[in-house]
Amino acid sequence: MNPHQMPPSFATHHDWYSSSLHSLSSESNAAPAAAADDPLLYTYTAAFHGFAATLDEDEAESLRASASVLGVYEDTVYELHTTRTPEFLGISNDLGLSDPQQGNPSGKRRAFGDVVVGVLDTGVWPESKSFDDAGMPEVPARWKGVCEAGPDFSAKSCNKKLIGARFFSKGYHMASGANFLKKPKEAESPRDQDGHGTHTASTAAGSPVSNASLLGYASGTARGMAEHARVAAYKVCWSSGCFASDILAGMDRAILDGVDVLSLSLGGGTAPYYRDTIAIGAFTAMEKGIFVSCSAGNSGPVRATLANVSPWIMTVGAGTIDRDFPAYALLGNGKRYAGVSLYSGHGMGHNPVPLIYNKGSNISGDLCLPGSLDPALTRGKVVLCDRGVNARVEKGQVVRDAGGVGMILANTAANGEELVADSHLIPAVAVGRKMGDVIREYVKGNASPRAVLSFRGTVVNVRPSPVVAAFSSRGPNMVTPQILKPDVIGPGVNILASWSAAAGPTGLESDIRKTLFNILSGTSMSCPHISGVAALLKSAHPNWSPSAIKSALMTTAYNQDNTGSPLRDAAGGAFSTPWAHGSGHVDPQKALSPGLVYDLTAEDYIAFLCSLDYTIDHVKAIVKRPNVTCSRKFSDPGELNYPSFSVVFDDKKVVRYTRELTNVGTTGSAYNVSVTGPSMVGVTVKPMRLIFPKVGDKRRYTVTFVSKKGTNPTMRSEFGSIVWSNAQNQVRSPVAYAWTKLVS
């Protein structure tokens, strides 16, 4: 809605919205869709100007025709993007910062406990030791959040660590319709029945818990990135997904409650920003100084599969860490093949048993889909299953239900050599595509193939690491090709964190095992790592904008693994590119003092939005300001003062951008520029040296990219970098080059 068109006869926007809806239903002489219920589900005030309601097509059309309505959009469903990491990230003792505690007179730093991380997810398991508040100071006085009660969740479940818990289910209800009323499966409360929300919240800001492990795997102390920060949980995801109307209600409330960081490990498809619920809510959050971190999605290694690409959001991809869980398949020919597993039950012993693959005429048997295995052929055997289509852990359940005693889960081309460990219900080993192909050939070419599986536990200091996860969604950015996404990668493979006691480690209904911690993989896991690191940076630099924090994390990210080689991609084993890893792997210690930052204000983002082919009403829906005129707009969206570059030549030979750097380092610092890139592009930077006499000084430079004569316009893509450096700092920006807009 356009809130400034509210007639003066209404006391509140809620009254106005309600009246607008009732006049609709009286016009159509129809009862509201949910007969006994108010059709108005949510009134939004901060994250969005408008409301969520149940409407039929005619009512929606009538609303669209109203002058005070900016747009009417159907509710959409988002999906979840399903701990050695503090040490791997170099976070020991809060980046070496001392806690200034509450009431610090200098005001240069905020107390760790003054920063609140809001997590929008499946809720929280408050009894987890990760939310223990021992030694934490009183809750900040400015905090407006509450602990909402439910049938399985006491209002006393919160404490000085978990300082808020709310739930939002009206969109989920409406979508479930009568099914929900007949069979209410889920209790209405912030309690996490799934595990995902507890895992992400504890990753971002969990308290230290010693002797944590998943059934003996990854044993050690589990702690969040910002272990002294507060957590507020907003349950917006239910068994059938996360509905946009509920997500927006959660963001709306979190902004009003007073969170400093918002972490969303969920996403949908790509859409223009005015149709993207998370982007709209995040714009208001950014304006209010809240850092928003979102997962990039798990649709890799396919190109152009990113979610959450708006430039005011930190888009986080996933990499591996230096810990692994080796397991082995010993075949009847004496050859042993290495893989990974988190199986923790009784082993298979030492005697090989028959191994089967492709027993039957259908491909669903290769994939071990439910009902595809013949028990008569499977009983007592190890089954080789292709990865893909159904969940990895479900394949093990299918084998077990058909009488199988073990499983080798073999990758196909889609996943390459990427290995994800799972807590399988039966002895199971996951292997890469190359080994998978060798084992497939062994089974096909042998009259009586046999195998036995063994498990080695946990190993650390794995090389190379990090490696970009094959599942991590890839660029280019299909919403705005001139903005390079993802922004960074963080730890997202085999991550140990707290778990809900309501779910077994696999999440399968038949999994009756209980564990306080679980190991999961996904950009869902990398996102809260970045959220927690952002909370630490907010403590260290309370006056930095969300864009400055984002710039610090991007320009200091590293691009080499622990063997000194450029980052590799698990999907094919080749070197990774910025379309997979963005600016690189986050380096929290370096981000603390980046030297220079690329800062941005809400006005800059508005000029960016005005440079897109949006109507003024579309822009107003995102920025929620009545007087936006687009008098200031970029001639090209790539002019946004972003910490990375995406150069799309299209039909142009020359692209020129001006960027502005702000000195957050020392007085009198000077930087020189260096450029790397492909031979078919000429790059000139003016000036080549920047001098910053004072802290806070801003300096501009202009970079001109020229596509050289004879360059084939169908060139897929190339990459390079622009680095401003001195003895103390390297301020690095990746550059992606494309010659056509829709690079497929």
Briefly note the structural class of the backbone. Answer: alpha/beta
Strand proportion, as a percent range, falls in: 15-25%
* Radius of gyration, CA atoms, in whole angstroms: 26 Å
State the strand order across the main sheet. Answer: 5-8-4-11-13-14-25
Q: Treating each run of at least 4 consecutive H or I residues as one helix, how many helices?
A: 18
How far apart the termini lie comes to 37 Å
Low-confidence stretches: 30-36, 102-106
Count of distinct strands: 37
Largest sheet entry:
7 strands, parallel
Mean pLDDT: 91
Could you say which overall geometry the principal axes of the C-alpha atoms support? globular
Domain Subtilisin-like protease fibronectin type-III: 639-736
Biased composition (Basic and acidic residues): 185-197
Active site: 121 (charge relay system), 196 (charge relay system), 524 (charge relay system)
GO molecular function: serine-type endopeptidase activity
Describe this structure in words.
It is found in: Secreted. One of its GO terms (cellular component) is extracellular region. It comes from Corymbia citriodora subsp. variegata. Residues 185-207 are annotated as: Disordered. The chain has 744 residues and is of the alpha/beta class. Helices cover 21% and strands 24% of the residues. The chain contains 18 helices and 37 strands. The strands form 10 sheets. A 7-stranded parallel β-sheet has the order 5-8-4-11-13-14-25, sandwiched between helices. Strand 36 and strand 37 (730-738) form a beta hairpin. Helix 6 packs parallel to helix 13. The chain starts with 12 loop residues before the first helix and ends in a 6-residue tail after the last strand. The model is unreliable at 30-36 and 102-106 (pLDDT under 50).
